[in-house]
Amino acid sequence: MSGQSRQNIKPGLEVNIVLKQDQRSGKLTNGIVKDILTNASFHPHGIKVRLQDGQVGRVKEIVLN
Q: Which of 12, 29, 15 has the alpha carbon at shortest distance from 4?
């Protein structure tokens, strides 16, 4: 599932994000959402979130268990 819609993302969800320094390479980082940082309901590059370990990036994929 895509991470462009805010309604799809909730704290506690497992997601793959791209960190700011990884935007060129597209390397994904896996983690659990702690906070949603984007206020808009939609963002073309992905909703910005903070993971439980403190890393911040844009959601590229929502991991469905």
A: 15
Model pLDDT for residues 5-63, shown as the tens digit of each residue: 999 999 999 999 999 999 999 999 999 999 999 999 999 999 999 999 999 999 999 99
DSSP state letter for 3: S
CB atoms under 10 Å from CB of 65, counted, come to 4
Q: Coil, helix or strand for 28? A: strand
CATH, domain 6-62, list 2.30.30, 3.30.450, 1.10.3470, 3.30.70: 2.30.30
